[in-house]
Amino acid sequence: MKTAFDDLLHGLRIIGQEELLPRFHGRLTVEEKPDGSLVTSADHAVDGRLSGLLGELFPGLAVLSEEQTREAQQKVLSSAKPFWLLDPLDGTTNFVGGLPFFAISLALVDARGVEFGATYDPVRDELFSVMRGAGLRLNGAAPPARHFDPRELEQCTALVDCKRLQPRLATALAVDPPYRSQRNLGACALEWAWLATGRADLYLHGGQALWDSAAGTLMLAETGGQMTDLEGGPVFQRSLDRPSAVAARSAELQERWLHWLDTRR
Fold first, then answer.
1. How far is CA 19 from CA 8, 24, 89, 98, 105, in A?
2. pLDDT tens for residues 126-154?
3. Which residues contact 155 (CB under 8 A, 6 or more apart)?
4. Residue 145 has what DSSP assignment?
5. Which residue from 1, 31, 214, 232 has the fewest beta carbons nearer than 10 Å?
6. CATH class for domain 153-262?
């Protein structure tokens, strides 16, 4: 039996294909926010359509979007009720620059944390979805099994964004990294989804908004991964703070990864 979540995933895919792809290859209006980040006509188009769809399928639930004012965001967070969390275009700088790494990400947040999450990559037509306790799905099926599961840091591929890291730690990672190879997609929600599906083994980011990590942290948890911030606290927080993120696909790798980072901070 189809559910409202099924209808949401169907609509998410259509919106991504109709609103993002034509603008990625065509005309686009770009503005700069007060904090220096970019926002485009694609962000606004997806934000409007998805907010409307969420209102139709889940009436009564508020939506907190990256494109709202801070005051509007804080008002949603101040309520104890469940709410939808929406990033209409994760990876806006990539989108503007013509780099094909961007996604739409949304999550349903309740008193226990993230209940449901979805991240859609329209370039590759990959829809990652997760429900608490029900596992991760990629285009409606279990993700394919990995060919190799590393046990040591030196065997790993890491997704690392050095932008907000302390200089001492960023230098250590550049000069003497503990892993085999490093990538940075420039789209946090997509990086979490790729980590959860086994396309990387380790993750490090110096500071993320709650819409960056909400869906992805549930995806990684449902596949057996571990995550904290650099201080040992939770990555996803029901707040507008931007905690760091340290994650790995297994508890053993996370322990080794955290130890290496702690000794070089």
1. 16, 9, 10, 15, 14
2. 999 999 999 999 999 999 988 888 999 99
3. 180, 201
4. P
5. 1
6. alpha beta
Each domain of the chain, given as residue ranges in start order, spans 4-138, 153-262
Structure tokens at 80: 């104890």
- Which residues fall within 8 angstroms of residue 112, CB to CB, at 6 or more apart? 132
Q: In the structure, what pLDDT confidence band is assigned to residue 121 with cuts at 50, 70 and 90?
A: very high
State if pTM tops 0.85. yes
> H helices within 82-152, ranges in order?
92-97
Bridge partners, 108 (sequence order):
84, 116
Residue 6 in tokens = 């099924």
Each residue's pLDDT tens digit, 19-53: 999 999 988 999 998 888 889 999 999 999 999 99
130: three-class secondary structure by DSSP: strand
Options 3.90.180.10, 3.30.540.10, 2.30.38.10, 3.40.1180.10; CATH of 4-138: 3.30.540.10
Total residues found in the chain within this entry: 265
Give the separation between CA 249 and CA 200, rounded to whole angstroms.
8
